[in-house]
Design a protein that fits this description.
The protein is an alpha+beta fold and about 1900 residues long. It contains 65 helices and 37 strands. Strands 3, 4, 5, 6, 7, 8, 9, 10, 11, 12, 13 and 14 form a twelve-stranded mixed sheet that branches. Strand 17 and strand 18 (about 610) form a beta hairpin.
Length: about 1900
Amino acid sequence: MAERRAFAQKISRTVAAEVRKQISGQYGGSPQLLKNLNIGGSVSHHTTVPLTEAVEPVDLEEYLSTHPLAVESGPLRDLLEFPRDDIEVVYAPRECRTLVSAVPEESEMDPHVRDCVRSYTEDWAIVNRKYHKLGTGFNPNTLDKQKERQKGLPKQVFESDEAPDGNSYQDEQDDLKRRSMSIDDTPRGSWACSIFDLKNSQPDALLPNLLDRTPNEEIDHHNEDQRKSSRHKELFALHPAPDEEEPIERLSVPEVPKEHFGQRLLVKCLSLKFEIEIEPIFASLALYDVKEKKKISENFYFDLNSEQMKGMLRPHVPPAAISTLARSAIFSITYPSQDVFLVIKLEKVLQQGDIGECAEPYMIFKESDAAKNKEKLEKLKGQAEQFCQRLGKYRMPFAWTAIHLMNIVSSAGSLERDSTEVEVGTGERKGSWSERRNSSIVGRRSLERTTSGDEACNLSSFRPATLTVTNFFKQEGDRLSDEDLYKFLADMRRPSSVLRRLRPITAQLKIDISPAPENPHYCLTPELLQVKLYPDSRVRPTREILEFPARDVYVPNTTYRNLLYVYPQSLNFANRQGSARNITVKVQFMYGEDPSNAMPVIFGKSSCPEFSKEAYTAVVYHNRSPDFHEEIKIKLPATLTDHHHLLFTFYHVSCQQKQNTPLETPVGYTWIPMLQNGRLKTGQFCLPVSLEKPPQAYSVLSPEVPLPGMKWVDNHKGVFNVEVVAVSSLHTQDPYLDKFFALVHALDEHMFPVRIGDMRIMENNLENELKSSISALNSSQLEPVVRFLHLLLDKLILLVVRPPVIAGQIVNLGQASFEAMASIINRLHKNLDGNQDQHGRNSLLASYIYYVFRLPNTYPNSPSPGPGGLGGSVHYATMARSAVRPASLNLNRSRSLSNSNPDISGTPTSPDDEVRSIIGTKATDRSCNRMSSHTETSSFLQTLTGRLPTKKLFHEELALQWVVCSGSVREAALQQAWFFFELMVKSMVHHLYFADKLDAPRKNRFPERFMDDVSALVSTIAGDIVSRFQKDTEMVERLNTSLAFFLNDLLSIMDRGFVFGLIKTCYKQVSSKVYSLTNPSNLASLKLDFLRIICSHEHYVTLNLPCSLLTPPASPSPSVSSATSQSSGFSTNVQDQKIANMFELSVPFRQQHYLAGLVLTELAVILDPDAEGLFGLHKKVINMVHNLLSSHDSDPRYADPQVKARVAMLYLPLIGVIMETVPQLYDFTESHNQRGRPSCVAVDDYESEGGSMISQTVAMAIAGTSVPQLTRPSSFLLPSSSGRQHSTFSTESSRSLLICLLWVLKNADESVLQKWFTDLSVLQLNRLLDLLYLCVSCFEYKGKKVFERMNSLTFKKSKDMRAKLEEAILGSIGARQEMVRRSRGQLERSPSGSAFGSQENLRWRKDMTHWRQNTEKLDKSRAEIEHEALIDGNLATEANLIILDTLEIVVQTVSVTESKESILGGVLKVLLHSMACNQSALYLQHCFATQRALVSKFPELLFEEETEQCADLCLRLLRHCSSSIGPIRSHASASLYLLMRQNFEIGNNFARVKMQVTMSLSSLVGTSQNFNEEFLRRSLKTILTYAEEDLELRETTFPDQVQDLVFNLHMILSDTVKMKEHQEDPEMLIDLMYRIAKGYQNSPDLRLTWLQNMAGKHSERSNHAESAQCLVHSAALVAEYLSMLEDRKYLPVGCVTFQNISSNVLEESAVSDDVVSPDEEGICSGKYFTEAGLVGLLEQAAASFSMAGMYEAVNEVYKVLIPIHEANRDAKKLSTIHGKLQEAFSKIVHQSTGWEFLLVEFFFPFSAPFPPPPLFVFGLVFLFCFTLWNPQFHFNKELCQQQHPHHGTRNMVLPTTSIAVSWVWHQSIPELPLNTSTDGLCVLIHGINVKFILFVCFPIRKIKKKSFHAVPREFKNSF
């Protein structure tokens, strides 16, 4: 059978190799079934398209328009066309953080400002594919989402989970023992006992109507209704998703562009207290990075003075704005490092004396001495009041300190309390600053302090800390600069800090540091705007402090910000004549030269107004060259003119109050013009200072210009150092960007000449300048390019769409702009590589396309389409389409877009009409309306503005530029193809939206030339992929996915037939290359990615025309209309052909279901075992199919069963493809055999519940024959004999394939399946049944205990890493591949060593193991384990019910055909196998119902043909009769009763069933571990009850026969009870088994069963010699009956042949013919009563003898076997046998030297009249017999002499030691030739209670010590 199947497999395949040889013409286009399309009975021959080539796709639009919809409405209607609202263009208002949005206050703005503001405020223009989330990329069957969908599952009841717990079980056992005493007291065979016992039993519930004569159809119908009710709808919700990284087809929605924040830190200033309180003190905080030598935040000013102290300044300070009263601030740190310090600076009111003098009181006075120093303090207070009165508006530096931020964060993180108190101090008394700070972090964090500081420091999750800073350093008047500060800070980190030696100012500053909350209330931005959630304006706010990041941050601007920071640094008045010592600088921002022109734009510090017109620097007393540390923050006006400037006025402040001396005397002036050549002027300045007021019109000049008649300090040298820094989202501060924007705006405004820098650009020169400025964008700095990215790209796109008119000529800038875009995008990609998603898409660019990009407005100065200005509300409404567009495109609403609908025809308005209508009315623009000045004719408009209204569409221009570009530009575009593709798609959608074309037929949407460009583009890119995939792997991967996403997008908006054509183009190019490569896996893998992305389209099902019938579409193209046809042997009508085509990858199928055809074709080609080099892609292609089906399964649109059937129709060929792979699938039946039961060498423990004790797999393999067998159907015998070695799929892949198969079978239309099954050949139907058989094992329930055991194991990742490595290696063919493949084959074939089965059990549930993130704890809670078991139970039940449904369809199909026997046999085999597996009660009830129906329909199946299956069925039913679950027992008893009844009805007795049931029970009780006789007794009682109630047969002998049978079974049960008692006593157990076997002397089948049970028990205990003897007896028994049944000379004549092995085999002689006739019904019909069975038994006996070291016996066994193999001319077997014989004799001959002990121990119960085996031991033997009960052991001398007269014996009894020693010698050792059989000593012992025998041999021949068997525990002490 196996050979036949393997051969047949070869016939029915079309493999890739053959296709490559161009032989495909003779096959019918399908690799599975050799049938073809026969249309209308006419036979015409067309060439078919091999699977490796793409077919011509159907023209989808044409098809839909020519095939009107058959369905009017309902769920099926939605399958036919995309929904109307498929695509929406949504204008979503951008979220604004602040209560009012940040915009300039001015109403007049220049174009650049206007553009920037528009860019920061306009709504997001989003194209929304409404159903996108239903595509496979968002499949809800991923692990995280599955839990949700598994809620509410019913709990399935499994017997394996219902095991009782220890105590109750023990009680039950004791109870049984008590009960069994009554049995024991009665002799075996006592009817009285059985009757008594059964009468007392309770039957189970009887099934209603079981005995009625119902028609089969009615029964089937009833069974089907029962099966189909309350089934789980979604199969994949129960099946764990395959392990994949992020699915390749998932494109995540980019993040919304938003303002950048680093890690945020909340600092609260709680209190500041000095030893003495005499005057107000002002504080500020800022962050500094020592390593970068950079101030990384602006200053935060806070005031912690008491009201009394503040009162001292009242005359000088106007009322304070609430925003200046903040005491808490949020700092942002983008690059946290070990080098960040929080620096606190203190200032006080200016007073006479230098800083040291002023600080002295704070150092010497102590709070504790306040009473003592009262007078002095009063005096000091008085002085302070005077200074405040007079000098209150001036400040002087006072003190500073710093906190090492990371120390705080890390120590707070390491402490246990919720809030941490940390004291920071400096000075001798408290240890140095750094020592005290670091003491808490040495060890744990010391490493971080010494590292470079670049490693990440996390500020988001430390515990809040409260710091008390106790020591301040006084400021040094000559060391105020930032440079000095960095030195101090660097010094602070050293242990021997210089600062330590300084005398500190003691004070207490308390601050809280904590991670900032997500959305803090009462927060102000750096511009003092209120952040949302600001419930009350009167509450003291928290200030957000602007960050100056240590390094560049690449984030586009999204909010309006325009701030200027001025840092006066130093002044040198050393060479200035006159008195100027206490110097302050007044800073003002002026918009003109008049003193009154100072603008109130300078931010206040603390406790003052929000804005002021001037700011003063702190005064350093008596210093002519002071340093400053001021920060002056200015709010810049949006529009700057040449007159805006910073004015610095230098004053000398007189501290002493003198007569006639003014408080301040101006001593110098200087200024900085804000604009220079139109650009903002920032940076470091060293300015000359004028002694006089500047003259008129000074502001437009720089102070460096020598103005006539002016006096300057120090000869006009630079004496004042100042730094100006702008933080602005208006000013690019990059010359190249500035120039580009300036030129573009000049074009817009049409204002010439343009001044840029020193140049004046005239109109005639503009074109060259514009082009050069575009190409010069490459030279600009990356940081400003990113900041102004949105605006820059908008402008470049605008230049493409609206070419400017310069000097009357249209200038085409498309190419220049395209090149600039390509280079900018590549720069971003290269420099910001950390910013990319899995597809290499830069997130900044992706979010630009998704949110920002929109088609540029169609005429100048109008808002973009969609809400302009400051955002309008979004309405998801479909606008009424009208012929005339609304004049204003400033739509404050959105329209839902719809896809084409063939029924709706309407001519879209032409673009020209549209333009005319736009120009004919005036536009309204909220921000600034200049349109009114324009005249209404287009020509005039053109000359005036320099732009045509519009002639170009962006996507068309983009496609054109891309197609024509070459060289480095093309390369740059290819590198970032995704960007241009996505841009093109969005442009297309916007164009359709604004041109009102979304309802137009798809064929009319885009012009021909554009479609040609797209075709050319796609074709060349596919060519690039093919030609470069080996060189530029990474780039080609990106290109491949970009192209696939592009085509996926096009399916939503373009002519779908056209897009299919593009897909075919790509496919063709890639495929032709794939099949010419020796190692195609890389390219084939790219092809799979490509296909997977395209098939992830949300309307994938609709694209496949699921409702079309497979008729050739009416199409002009011959390749489409021509369908293959040849005459078919099975069916001739069109209907059947359609069915056949639906199940094959025929050309019509692949054309009409185009994408599904591609997917299934890929699957078929890659899984083909001859597809060289594609082995590594199995998992990938299977996952693709799995993902699609799983996605359909959970899709709400396909929930309706009718719809799901249509979807399943697209996958019908999958059944055939999987049938082809049967030999390659992982053999789950093997892992099933190893399910954690104690296994032994000869016993396959699957059989312990499955039939005979001998592993048939082993017996068969040894015998080399194909006995039909249980463990696996014959076609599963692997490796196949065809000589081709298949590579086996992994467990995971096989499982995925099988679940896909079940999904199709579950959801497909049953009538369609039935028709197809009718068409299948017997071979193919059997192949299908093989698959179902495999499915049963694959989805078997593992049991709760297994999940618990799995949970306790810890898994390592290595196994999976190894698998991945293999996948990678297997990409390349060669020896490596072969080696890995072979080792993988072994690995997957051999069950893993784990206690609970194969690797599969580990691998498919990776979510339980190592594969998830490491954070996931391995130990699962009880609930989780319960949940896993619940899911697994439901999956097993549903899978088996699907299998049952399919079997029913097969049965209905074949019941009318001639070849039904073999197929029904196969059906029964699958049914029986499912009964043998671990099944739920629900499934078993349906299964038994189906089995009863099957037997009633085809009784001859069991009772005439398949003896073996009758036996198996009886065994399964009996096993379930002993189930602990009531309903299972009820159904099993009913089935068993009906089986007897039907058998009786056929021939008036049911000998066969009687025989099989008795044998099955014997087998069951002999082997099953968890067998419970109480439950079985109830079932027997149920059967008896049925017999009593069966009115129909009451008059026959049937009830009596049933009663006889039941009583006989009950007696076997009684023996079982005894056996259970002796479960722990192996010798006694075997003794009982022997007795039972002896009792079946008249029933050869049963005797054989018990002999095998005994062999199994011996084998379990490694008693191989005894096991071998039992097998020899079994073989003798079989031989005896075979010689009666068959007359074959080469077979042994009976048991006589075996007596050389053991003289006891004569016991097996057949009893006289009148007792048993082997021809009688049901006798000797088991599978072992055949020649193959005999061979198997003998092979196994030989193996056991060999393991026992009894090599002489091996020879004797083979003497019987050799003639059989010779007769069969089986040379292979003969060579094996002779090899083994040679081994055995060598072992006898080549023994080692020396006299060594050979210790052989036997556990054979000699108390039974079953003598021990003969021992072939040479020489003198001492035999020690240990006796337990009888010390006076009697050695049976007479019997020994009778049988062996030439042996002498002598008894020696030693009563004292209870040991009887006999020694037996050989009388004639020298004379005997050593090879005769008498050369052995046969020791026969008939002692009654011998428990143990030890043989000690002193060999004459030198015998090697063979083995030393461990002595049983109870005898150890005897030695």
